[in-house]
Structure formats: C-alpha cells, structure tokens
Specification:
By secondary structure, the protein is mainly α. The protein is built from nine helices and no strands. About 70% of the residues lie in helices and about 0% in strands. It comes from Paraflavisolibacter caeni.
Length: about 200
C-alpha cells in the first residue's frame, strides 16, 4: 500500500486538513498540464474537482488500494478528462506536451491502476464470502488453491489424503463448494459494482 492511501481515507472522511494538503500537492501538476494544453487555471480547477469526485465514488463503491502516488492517479484521470474536453471543442492539432511521460507512467496508467484495484476488490469479496462458509468447504477450497513446494497446485489426490477422504468425494465436494462460493459472491450487492 502506498503512503498516499491516507488521502483516499481523507476523501472518504472529509478530512479538510489532509484534503488541503492533497490540493497543494497535486493541483499545480494539473494546472500546468491544462495551461500547457490550451486551457486556463479555471479549466484545471474544474477537472481537478471532477477527478476528486470520481475518485471519491470509486473509493466508496469498493476498497481502493493505491499502489502509486495519488498525484499520478489523479493526473491520469485529469489527462483523460482534459483530452475529452479538447476533443469536444474540436481543437485542431491538439498535441499534448510531455506531461504523460513525467513519471514514466504513460497514458494507460489510470486504466492499469483501475484494473488492478478491480481485481483486488474481486479477490477481497471472494475471501470475505469464503470466510462465511462452513469449515469443511473452507478447508477444501483453500487446499485446492494452495501450491506445493514446486509451485504447482496441489492435486485432488493430495487433498483427499490431507483430509482423509476418498479422491472421488474430494472432487465432488470441491465442485459443490466452489458452486456455493460463487453463489454467495454473486448474491452480494457489492458484486454488481465489480462485474465490468
């Protein structure tokens, strides 16, 4: 987890002191990008505010864990927003400055970060639902996801030996437990936010 995670918490808890810090830390970067690309400081303030609202919605909908600086995250959002604004206004020959390369992040940063956070949120939901299951299913699924010393998944035969059951029963029970887990996941309201 990145130390800037505190700013995500600040957004969710409306911590004015930390939000002020966030503004001082990140807004100058956004202002420079917008002004260097046919915009004004007012335009920069608007898209910065929109990005914070979007970030708040993302964080509220699911657990958002930062792996990079929050300014880089906001920068990716604002770059995409400002490009869209320029396209809407039909600005001819729009060529962005080296803004995207400043932190070696590139244009796909936001997409990559979003995908990572979505995968993490899905995994967290599966773990949460696994903990709601009975002990025998929990143990069976955990063993089926485990890997041996060589890094290979544990075989059904090894699982059966570990649990003192037949291989056929282990296979049948594992299938039933996976179906039950998937049902629990899909019935959770949070699942709808994680489908895309």
């Amino acid at each position: 987890m990145h130390p800037d995670q505190k700013y995500i918490d600040a957004l969710l808890n409306n911590d004015r002191k930390l939000l002020g810090e966030l503004y001082q830390k990140c807004f100058p970067i956004i202002r420079n990008m917008v002004v260097q690309n046919k915009g004004t400081e007012a335009n920069a303030a608007d898209i910065f505010q929109e990005a914070l609202v979007d970030l708040f919605k993302i964080a509220k909908a699911r657990q958002l864990t930062l792996q990079f600086s929050i300014c880089a995250y906001i920068k990716g959002m604002c770059t995409n927003k400002w490009r869209d604004e320029l396209k809407k206004s039909n600005s001819e020959g729009v060529t962005f400055t080296d803004f995207d390369r400043q932190d070696d992040i590139g244009e796909d940063y936001f997409k990559v970060a979003e995908e990572h956070n979505l995968k993490q949120a899905r995994l967290n939901l599966i773990k949460k639902k696994l903990n709601e299951m009975g002990e025998s299913c929990k143990e069976l699924i955990r063993l089926s996801w485990a890997r041996n010393a060589a890094g290979k998944r544990i075989s059904t035969e090894e699982i059966a030996k570990a649990l003192h059951i037949t291989e056929g029963y282990a296979r049948k029970k594992k299938s039933e437990c996976i179906v039950k887990l998937m049902r629990l996941v899909m019935d959770d309201p949070e699942y709808r936010n994680l489908k895309h």
